[in-house]
């Protein structure tokens, strides 16, 4: 279960680096991205071939490789353009149509499918092993 702590630490480190250095926005909007990073790092780290020195019985280098890959991938994705509300020329009150164009978008079905899929991949790896993740294979 130390793998979970390694993935959790690296997910926090990647999110912090993206918020501080890449100019991402933090706050409550970062939690879905953090959850996605955590499960991707956990699933990738326990399925990759173990390399490097073990730390408390866990080969942490595969987790680091996955963390770097995800951080670079997220940093390379361009930000969506910011939408601005337009005021109608006739009045200073925003119309209902203008408000609809800037409504926040919730988490989609694809996000939840990916999150559940990554969690199942990690659980499957733990289920097929003999109590511990097969790190020395």
User: Order of SSEs, N→C?
Assistant: HHEEHHH
Poorly predicted runs: 98-103
- Largest β-sheet summary: 2 strands, antiparallel
Bulk shape: globular
Q: Which strand-content bin applies to the residues?
A: under 5%
By DSSP, the count of extended strands is 2
Arrangement of strands in the largest sheet:
1-2
Distance between the termini: 18 Å
Mean pLDDT: 77
Describe this structure in words.
The chain is mainly alpha-helical. Residues 98-103 have low confidence and may be disordered. A two-stranded antiparallel ribbon has the order 1-2. Strand 1 (54-55) and strand 2 (58-59) form a beta hairpin. Helix 1 (2-20) packs across helix 2 (31-47), helix 1 (2-20) runs parallel beside helix 3 and helix 2 (31-47) packs across helix 3 (61-76). The chain is built from 5 helices and 2 strands. The protein has helices at 2-20, 31-47, 61-76, 96-101, 109-128, and strands at residues 54-55, 58-59. It is globular, with a radius of gyration of 20 Å.
């Amino acid at each position: 279960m130390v793998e979970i702590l390694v993935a959790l630490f690296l997910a926090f480190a990647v999110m912090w680096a993206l918020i501080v250095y890449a100019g991402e926005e933090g706050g409550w909007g970062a939690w879905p991205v953090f959850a996605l990073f955590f499960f991707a790092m956990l699933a990738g780290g326990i399925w990759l071939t173990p390399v490097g020195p073990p730390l408390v019985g866990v080969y942490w280098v595969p987790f680091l490789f996955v963390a770097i890959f995800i951080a670079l991938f997220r940093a390379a994705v361009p930000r969506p353009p910011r939408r601005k509300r337009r005021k109608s020329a006739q009045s200073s009150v925003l119309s209902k149509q203008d408000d609809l164009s800037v409504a926040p978008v919730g988490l989609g079905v694809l996000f939840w499918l990916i999150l559940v899929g990554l969690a199942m991949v990690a659980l499957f790896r733990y289920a097929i092993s003999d109590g511990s993740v097969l790190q020395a294979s």
